[in-house]
Amino acid sequence: MNKPLPVTQPFLPPLEEFIPYLQQIWDSRWLTNGGRFHQELEAALAEYLGVKHLCLFNNGTVALVTALQCLRITGEVVTTPYSFVATAHSVLWNNLRPVFVDIDPRTFNLDPARIEPAITPATTAIMPVHCYGTPCDVDAIQRIADIYGLRVIYDAAHAFAVRRKGVSILEYGDLSVLSFHATKVFNTFEGGAIICPDAKTKQRVDYLKNFGFADEVTVVAPGINGKMNEVQSAFGLLQLRYVDEAIAHRLRIDARYREGLSGVSGIEIPQPLEDVSHNGSYFPVLVGPGYPLSRDALYDKLKTHGILARRYFYPLISDMPMYRGLPSATRENLPVAQRVAQQVLCLPIFSDLSESDQSRIIELVRGA
Fold first, then answer.
1. Distances in Å between the alpha carbon of 214 and those of 38, 176, 205?
2. In sequence order, which ranges of the chain are alpha helices (DSSP H)?
3. What is each CA distance from 349 to 184, 219, 269, 296, in whole angstroms?
4. CB under 8 Å to 258, separation ≥6 — which residues?
5. Residue 152: which H helix or E strand, with range?
6. Residue 149 and residue 188 in one domain
7. Which GO terms describe its biological process (predicted)?
8. Same structural domain for residues 61 and 128?
9. pLDDT for the residue 2
10. What is the spatial distance between Cα 207 and Cα 223, in angstroms, rounded to a whole number?
11. Which residue range(s) make up the domain with 311?
């Protein structure tokens, strides 16, 4: 290999196809603030994803922060320790208290059985994550939310185009938040979106992401600058032409990994759920006691061969300095998440990964 292989890297359409978009932006002098391409991308993504209302953002973290603001969440938010830090950071940024509960050992998602015991009079919301694009148990989570009068905001950063029983996973909960970061299946360099259930909610989100402006002289909320610019939007429109092809390629890579690593002692491959259309966003494996190397030793071995696997998610959010003092962050409270974080290793999966490179990765894992 001539260059290191990362866990994932952005799919880049042909440069010559992007130039006309840039020329139109240059000619129009409309660079941001809800221009033509911004409006077109919102409509195109809503149609592609099968949702009614979608608000574009400059990144997924600002979208998470705004989602909590939109629903006026207060007090405590039940969430997962097994995620990227932005999930819990968005809670802290809103001066709220995250309450961590353990994860399901099969899906690595928030375990519904652990949610109810964590609810207190201060709890107002649940923020689950569709980890690696695998849907949460949305029905069980909604039942709990309905009983206790809680709002549900899904961190759906990994779940672009994922469907469950033919329905977009983004339709569940009060809001769903997507990330369009460069490492995602669909990207706009940086970017994100909030999926809203109705036009009224979309209007409030649109106010909040633009400083709270309702018109030129009226500010209705303490909003933030979360707008996606025209260059990002144009790139998203071009990406959307190729996203089905990119997902199909990722799924072929997923299938080859499953075949090539089948039967390797100590390597556990999470199995896909039935009735779910996956997007091939990540390929995690668990390196268990039956494998001849520890997880970290395998990570180092791959790295010496130019393969940049990732221990994703390690360490747990609950082990980080700003969270580990919380009562819910104790290791005794999170045994499954602690085990998975110590064993997980995500192998490279991206549209440009060649069969020969993938074969080499498989042989290095099998040959340990």
1. 18, 23, 11
2. 15-28, 36-49, 60-70, 86-93, 112-118, 138-148, 199-208, 230-261, 295-304, 335-343, 355-366
3. 11, 45, 14, 19
4. 269
5. strand 151-155
6. yes
7. polysaccharide biosynthetic process
8. yes
9. 63
10. 7
11. 243-366
Distance CA 226, CA 58 (A): 5
Q: Which amino acid is at 318?
A: S
Q: Output the average pLDDT for the chain.
A: 97
Q: pLDDT for 125-161, tens place per residue?
A: 999 999 999 999 999 999 999 999 999 999 999 999 9
**Does 184 qualify as catalytic in the annotation?**
yes
Structure tokens at 300: 């180092």
pLDDT of residue 306: 97
Q: What is the mean pLDDT of residues 4-9?
A: 94
pLDDT, one tens digit per residue, over 302-349 is: 999 999 999 999 999 999 999 999 999 999 999 999 999 999 999 999
In the numeric block, which tokens belong to residue 117? Answer: 């015991």
Q: Is residue 105 part of a domain?
A: yes
Catalytic residue among 3, 52, 184, 227: 184
Residue 315 CB neighbour total at 10 angstroms: 14
Quick one: residue 75, left, alpha or beta (phi over 0 = left, psi -120 to 50 = alpha)?
A: left
Residue 268's domain is classified under what CATH number?
3.90.1150.10
In this structure, the answer to whether residues 278 and 292 fall within a common structural domain is yes
Rounded distance between C-alpha atoms, residue 310 and residue 303, angstroms: 10
Name the helix (H) or strand (E) containing 157: none
